[in-house]
Amino acid sequence: MPRNENMDIKWHVLNYIAPTPAHRDKPECIVEQFNRSDETGCLELFAPTFVEMTQRDGKWKRKETPLLFHYVFVRGTEGDVKDLCSRPNGFSLIINHTGTTRYATVSDSDMEAFKTIARFYGNMTIPCFSTEEIDLEEGDRVEVAVGPFAGLTGAYISRKGSRNGNILISVTGALAAVVYDIKAEYVKVLQFAKDTKRAYDQIESFIPRLFAALRDWDNGKVTTQSITPLVIFNRRMESVTLRNDKLDAKLQILLMTSAIILGDTQSKEKAAERFKKLSHTITNPVTAALAILLQAIVSRDRQQLIKGYDLLTETEKLKSAFHATLLAEYRHYIDTSDKWVKP
User: Fold this and answer.
1) How confident is the model over 280-316, as pLDDT tens digits?
2) Total number of domains constituting the chain
């Protein structure tokens, strides 16, 4: 019988100590290579990280650092995991001295709970944001994180093209305000402007970023780059008051989904409660299909996924670029949802 016909698939706790500097902190590359080289290889890796700022050659960069030092988690059959560890790649099994199994393992339910905690911890430690990753809005209070103007604090002033590096910051002193036109690669957002003036644009531009983060999350490969827009969007928009219930309902389902990816249970429950109150206001079939898709993915509900896809394919009169994008997302998850395990 081939190894992977054995249905005893578990999360195994492994040591990972890179054998050479070239492979340091890249266990995911080794697992991907194993899966490609082995006909029955279908291992899944979870190696949580947090973000820190490091300086190299006079430049500051964000670096993802292992959250648990040299411990990682690999899901698969014992045979596949043993095969992985038998190769000269830095992985090794951990003997279980207290349980009934020979090797240390974690149940799927315990692993999901730990993933939530690890994501929340990792996401909350992002110290600063690249100006190319986030949409600053006029009135946001920011602090320049690195460079000649590091520590400069003031209110961001909107200017077309500011995401390319240079931003305008107004610093108010005792007698006057001085505007600095500076290059700022990384900034800390100290306080968002009280009222966003372009909520609709913020919501629409966020959806593709959420789709990208969802695919990473669904594959167990959430990265700093994919969740940074989610952190900023949730922090900015969770306190925004909208006078349009339909738009507010759309906002809440986006907030709820991104909070789940971030592992922020409190924000998720708050958004879910408000969405429940407003969901009846959604009359546009495409928006309804979007809401169904997001709920189906995070709840691992394939039947709901099919329901949303059927609704979307019936809306012939509302075809648009977003309609096509949404269809592509549905087809992707329909093709890959056979791997889903109910949370």
Assistant:
1) 999 999 999 999 999 999 999 999 999 999 999 887 6
2) 3
